[in-house]
Amino acid sequence: MNQLREAQSLPCKSIFKNNSKAQKNKLLSKIFPRSTGNLKSQDSAPQENDQSVNNEYTEDLNETSNLINENIQVPKERWIALALFCVLTCSQCCIWNTWGPITTPTMMAFTSWHKYHVALLSDWGCIMYLTFCLPCCWYLYRKGLLEPIRMAAVLTALAAFVRCFSCNETIFTITAHFAAILNGLSGVIIGPATALVSAVWFPRGERTTATGISSACNQLGMAASYLIGPAVVDTIISSNNTALNRNVGIYSHEERYNFHSSRPTDVGSSSSNDEHIRTILRVQIMSLMRIEFVIQSLIVVGILSFFPKQPNYFIDSVEKSSRFGLIESIMSLLKKKNMWQLCLAAAFSQGVTGPWLSMITMTFDSMVTQEEADKLAFWTIIFGSVISLVASRVADIFQGHLKIGLYTLLMISVVMFLWVLLLENRVLIFRKEELYAAVILGISASWSTPALFLELASEIAFPVSEAIVGGYMIFLANLIGTLFYFSYFIPGIGTEYNDIGC
């Protein structure tokens, strides 16, 4: 309000009196564009309704905006808000990817589980997004950030809690799926909120960086799952010097990977030893469930206690006055051809690489061991997170070059995954070092693009809310991800041809 009073005391006060409310909103929204990317798309847009406003009015308003911008104080709490949100998105992704890193031990511990069971547990996140995307975007649009983020934290904590009840195979299977549904609902809120946190708390010049930090922390959650899971649930049991991989190898390839055949519970004279191993693995899996619940409980306490309230700026009030409603926003997005092109590019890039990496232990099971696949996934995510932060910061420093950055990163990713495909099909001589390099570079380049996609989409879609733009993009990505996960229900398809999707 102080900035508004200062603006009203300036010589251009008469301008605000002589122009209609719609003209004021349009002019002021032009003064304070929310985008940090290529602003040429806004400047080059047809200005049919601006002809009635004199150039001298615009110049006076620009002078006023400069004075207002000088007096706006960026809140220090923005880093607290970003840090708590990043911790939440990290833990939510870690819980979502619980089963990928421990696929083999889990299928040993629960003999009725097969590959498609593990894929379905991850797929619940995509299914929930497709089902509840619109209500959650409306929730963010109406309530702001504080209440939805608290709700997301509570949902993730409940998801971690319900898995701690029993290690009975039937009960645990039910609770694991129920937990995946609850955690998926939390992800539906967190996904669109990523761009909204940056837009609400950060000024121009920092928003792409803030979005990149949030995206990187989400990726680090997956990396954490590849550390915590194998650290708690052993792939090798020290008792009687029996190796799990050796024990799993007792089953033939057809028995292990035929989705429709039942897995034997006895294998000759080793049946008692198998039962002993299953008991040990179930105890370890339950320990993992409890560890994740304790960590998530601490995160919930932190968010409920310390997450700051959404700031109210003069700029925000101007932007909100020119924003569309929910239905208007959706119709606006559907009518824009360039939004379809951009969002589909983001969907095919992000909708496949994330699920593919979460199932990497099954994708490369014939080429590398589970331990090697876990390490590959971990370092891939670490490199991807670092490059994502660098790309986001560079985009903030060199504004106006988002498209060039996206083209470059996506081309690198395409070339790397072509390399992976040629290595896996033995068109090129297979070497593990080349496979590791291609996977790390391909995923890292692809995962550097989400922040750039979100900022460019928010720019093109303005004045549509960032929550709705982010929800729209992630909806399409989850649609692609759902189709990818369902490929594991088709015998031979999910394991043989899923690299083509990348």
UniProtKB/TrEMBL annotation:
Q: Where in the cell is it found?
A: Membrane
SUPFAM superfamilies given for it?
MFS general substrate transporter
**Keywords on record:** Membrane, Transmembrane, Transmembrane helix
**Entry annotated with the keyword Transmembrane helix:** yes
The reply to whether Membrane figures as a keyword in the UniProt entry is yes
The annotated topology with respect to the bilayer is:
Multi-pass membrane protein
Q: In which domain of life is the source organism classified?
A: Eukaryota
- Annotated protein name in UniProt: Uncharacterized protein
